[in-house]
Amino acid sequence: MELQLSVPATADNVPLLRHAMAGFLEGQSVTGETAADVLLAVTEACTNVVQHAYRSDPAAVDRHIELAAECMDSILEVAVRDLGRGFAPRVDSPGLGLGLPVIAALTQTVEIRPLTPHGTEVVMTFAIEPG
Amino acid sequence: MHDRGDADTNRDPQFVRRRVDEVVLLLQVDGELDIKSTDSLRSALDAAEREGNIVRIDAAGVSFVDSTALGVLLASAQRLSARGGRLELINVSPPVRRILDMTLIARTVHVIS
């Protein structure tokens, strides 16, 4: 079973994506602390997109967050993608800079990959025990 | 030269009573705290800080907190601390406690179990 969503990269849509992810996890019988970890990591990744991904490309038309998730046996793989120009250091960042460290602490693995022709993909995996 | 050490040792103990009025503002928060609710959380805390030097957040109804919201809580805690107050969190659920512990924010925000 897979989850595929694409929504405009706005603050209002971050909880929407989290709730969609929660529904997907419920369908996979992933609950408790594991589900809480996934939802927090997804939120942090989506928030990064809203805060950083499109700042260096103000003319970008397709300002979206893509969320994809798939369960494979005991592994849940979640990808959060943007179509921006990559993450640039931001001295006026509104956050604490904790997003990626929190993601790293919550996931089994995390990879940040550039997309062609532009964009960034954060791929996170979690160990799960599906019902 | 006056030996201050001896003078202090020989002095009778002094007891000074001073009344300290701490105004505690209880802020009940319900819902999810993330990038969408950051502005409303900041406004609520700003208002609470104006009314009390101790702001106590009842987080029983908080189901989710992310690092964006933690940033707002931390900033409030630092402002209160600078003027001798503090930010307290009570009735914290286990998932919220988890991110507080993970980010060591409990060193700045008083989390009361």
Structure description:
The complex is a heterodimer of chains A (131) and B (113). With 131 residues, chain A is of the alpha+beta class. In chain A, 34% of the residues lie in helices and 29% in strands. Chain A has a five-stranded antiparallel beta sheet with strand order 1-2-3-5-4, with helices on one face. In chain A, a hairpin with a 2-residue loop joins strand 2 and strand 3. The longest helix of chain A has 22 residues, at 32-53. Chain A starts with a strand and ends with a strand. Chain B is α/β, with parallel strands linked by helices. Chain B contains four helices and four strands. In chain B, helix 2 (38-51) runs parallel beside helix 3 (67-82).
Shape field of chain A: globular
Biggest sheet strand line-up of chain B: 1-2-3-4
Main beta sheet of chain B: 4 strands, parallel
Secondary structure category of chain B: alpha/beta
Can you describe this structure in just a few lines?
With 131 residues, chain A is α+β, with helices and mostly antiparallel strands.
Provide key terms for this protein.
heterodimer, A: 131 residues, alpha+beta, 5-stranded antiparallel sheet, 3 helices, 5 strands, 29% strand, B: 113 residues, alpha/beta, 4-stranded parallel sheet, 4 helices, 4 strands, elongated
List the helices and strands and how they pair.
The complex is a heterodimer of chains A (131) and B (113).
Chain A: E1 2-8, H1 13-27, H2 32-53, E2 64-72, E3 75-82, H3 99-106, E4 109-114, E5 120-127
Antiparallel strand pairs in A: 1-2, 2-3, 3-5, 4-5
Helix pairs in contact in A: 1-2, 2-3
Chain B: H1 4-10, E1 24-33, H2 38-51, E2 54-65, H3 67-82, E3 86-90, H4 94-102, E4 110-112
